Each structure stands twice: as structure tokens, then as C-alpha cells.
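Reference record
================
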Amino acid sequence: MTHALTQRVALLLAAGLAALALALTLASPASATGFCGGQVISQASACWGAARIFTIVQGHGNETSVCVGYNEHRGPCSGGPNQNVEWNLGSAANRSPMIIGNAIRTTIGWGETF
């Protein structure tokens, strides 16, 4: 093998490894970003998180069911206290996540986005 061919093979191998590393980085699972953690909410008082880019909004309430949403959209509700509710919006976009109680009583709400 000539020196030039050895250099080309090494260069192609390095480029392939760099592309693989980039692909693995982009394919890694999204990390959760919390919002309204530990806030008192009810069906009359929602809690809004700061705008961010996300695809999934989820949450739960300690004492009652909660519903999740974003911007002006109210989405699905959990089945009861300490039961998680998740809404997969299908695409990533910049939104303001929301969690609201699903009962007259107050609850401690916990929201996350992915």
C-alpha cells in the first residue's frame, strides 16, 4: 500500500467516525425540563412554564388529577392523583407549557417537557 493510499484510508476512517459521533449525538433521547415543580394549582389557577422548544408535555398532581397543555391549548388530563399524563404534540416547536388542576381542590403540580 502506498503512503498516499494509507493517508486516504485514514482520512476516510476519521471522517466516518466523526459522522457516526454526530449522528449518535443528534439521536440521543431528549432530556426533561421541569416547570411549575411544587406549585399550588387548581382548575381555576394554572401554572405556566417559560417558553421553550419541546415535543412532549407531561405532569402529575399530588392530591388531584391535572391537565397539561401549551399556549392557549388545554390537553389531556391524568386519571387521578399521582398519575402521570403525557401529551405528545408530534413535532418540536417553541411553546409555553401549562399544567392546571382538574378539580376544585388545590394540588401540588409537577410538569415536564421533552
In short: The chain has two domains: 1-29, 33-113.
